[in-house]
Amino acid sequence: MNDPLLNTLVDGRYRILNRIGSGGMADVYLAEDGQLGRQVALKMLHRRFAEDQQFVERFKREASSAAALQHPNVVAVFDRGEHEGTYYIAMEHLAGRTLKQVMVDERPLPQERSIDLAIQVLTAAGFAHKRGVVHRDFKPQNVIVDDQDRAKVTDFGIARAGASEMTETGSILGTAQYLSPEQAQGHATGASSDLYSIGVMLFEMVTGRLPFEADSAVAIAVQHLSQLPPMPSDLRPDIHPGLEATILRALAKDPTERWQTADDFIAALQSARAALALGDDGQGTAVWGVVDPAPRRRRWPWVLAGLLAVAAAAAAFVLLSQPVQVRVPNLVERPLAQAEPPLEAAGLKVNVVQAEDPAPVNQVIAQRPAAGARVDEGSTVELTVSAGPATAAIPDVTGLSEKRAIRALNAAGFQTETDEEVSDEIEAGFAIGTLPGAGSERREGTPIQLLISSGPRIEQVPRVIGFDRDVAQSQLEGAGFKVSITKVDSEILAEEVTAQTPEGGTDAAKGSTVNLSISNGKLAGQAVPNVSGLDVNRAVPRLRGDGFRVDVEDKRVRNPVQEGLVLDQDPSAGETLEQGGTVELDVGRFDEPADGR
């Protein structure tokens, strides 16, 4: 059945291409980010959980926890939001397999490879722990490994930050096979709980199986609480004793008897790896410093005695073999903190040189002598580490269209994160500016916030028809509008608003102009009709019907035919006179002469 979300555009930005995974609370999809033109992993909360506030808070906390952890061994979180009733997280998309898939395909893993992968996971854990974040669900399914064996941790879905705790007392969060004893009991968890889970993962990488297996999660949890794990050497006889002791200490039931920090755990693994690099198979010479303080099985004293004997033999070998030659390990693409200890453990000196490079800061980008070379003990290995990418000035993109602004920033070596902002000066769809501002120096590749205008703020136009001019103008300007005045003839009182455009109650851009028609208190002018020659009884009604007053004045005439006719008019026909104005008419009056002539 086709997934209904395929080809869906999420939040107007992420186009779903295909599903790449599914979990208990969310599905993970490969999606195309339409704004930045890159592929991301889009984690969508199952809709049945979207109405459960506890699940939603847990999901949001995953985004917050991971977004705060910017580290080479932690999957980056870019964005989060809501879409059609559910929630999503946009994360870095990684090409590779889960560590679980690697173990299933290749188990058991070589000891050196197991150590390298575990150190990367521990580096991520230590980084989170130092920032008060406990993952609480470390498992190989939550670790992505690329084709160069670089590991990144994902899924901080049940992470706890600081003293905040989202679960109720007695609840169990995590995956049963990798659960610490205190988690199995529903007790408080801390950094040592994560280290226990990573110890289980390391046990599985080295031996090819889990320390505790059963038919149900409850049965497995009981084993974590009550049973000692098998000795790794019973399952893999060639395991190095130092590595075995390191794993067993991580799996101590009592949290106080485990490794207390990720750095301590890493140091023990580096010691075991250094011994393996010297060619020690655990039966000959080696140097390490890991002893499990907890009493184990009856055979453990023999292991301890073996460790001491091997250490003594290694010391004798060093004393009797001068000068000693050692092989230079491959340190390229490792963080400097992980590159120095193996060199120091092999008796080599380190010289660090920095160079500008797109690789993460302090990652080894070159080494001299090359990996695999044999050199005298005490020789110096030069490590070139990244100082980060070169810096560049942020260009001024103010007034450019969104596409042109993004191109300009990309051309300068920056990524962009676009946000909209209201602007009365910049047209919608054009750049207002950047944060940091133009001219600021930043490392190439740094995300720059690009502010795009959404246009001026929209406001409702006040209704001012019938208001006095000054009152109307004050109200409109107070609401953020400009005012244009036009005087019109009107029978309405002078200085009163007779009309407005746009009409009151409609929406308009703040800062736009409202046109007002203001009465001048005068009636509109009108052409006077021609009434000359008409009978006065017809002329007067016509003039009054057009809104004029009429003043009649008699003029004596000698011709009786002119009796009662309009002889003249003022104003003349066709002249303009305001309504209510007076038209004077001269009307003929015939008086018969007294002498009869």
Describe the model.
This protein is of the alpha+beta class and 597 residues long. It folds into 6 domains: 1-93, Phosphorylase Kinase, domain 1; 97-320, Transferase(Phosphotransferase) domain 1 (Transferase(Phosphotransferase), domain 1); 338-386, Trypsin Inhibitor V, Chain A (2-Layer Sandwich); 391-453, Trypsin Inhibitor V, Chain A, CATH 3.30.10; 458-519, Trypsin Inhibitor V, Chain A (2-Layer Sandwich); 526-590, 2-Layer Sandwich (Trypsin Inhibitor V, Chain A), CATH 3.30.10.20. The strands form 11 sheets. It has a 6-stranded antiparallel sheet, with helices on one face. A 3-stranded antiparallel sheet has the order 7-9-10. Strands 13-16-14 form a 3-stranded mixed sheet, with helices on one face. Strand 5 (77-83) and strand 6 form a beta hairpin. Helix 3 packs antiparallel against helix 9 and helix 9 (262-277) crosses helix 11 (336-345). The chain is elongated. The termini are far apart. The relative contact order is 0.05. Mean pLDDT is 83; it is low at 157-173 and 283-321.
Which structural class fits the helix and strand makeup? alpha+beta
- Distance between the first and last residues' Cα: 122 Å
Give the radius of gyration: 45 Å
How many structural domains does the protein architecture include? 6
Taking the sheet with the most strands, its summary is:
6 strands, antiparallel
The quaternary state of the protein chains shown equals single chain
Number of helices: 14
Number of strands: 31
The CATH architecture of the largest domain can be given as Orthogonal Bundle
Let me know the average pLDDT: 83
CATH-assigned fold name of the largest domain: Transferase(Phosphotransferase), domain 1
Q: What helical percentage do the residues reach? A: 25-40%
Low-confidence blocks of residues: 157-173, 283-321
| Text of the CATH class of the largest domain | Mainly Alpha
Strand order of the largest sheet: 1-2-3-4-6-5
CATH superfamily of the largest domain: Transferase(Phosphotransferase) domain 1
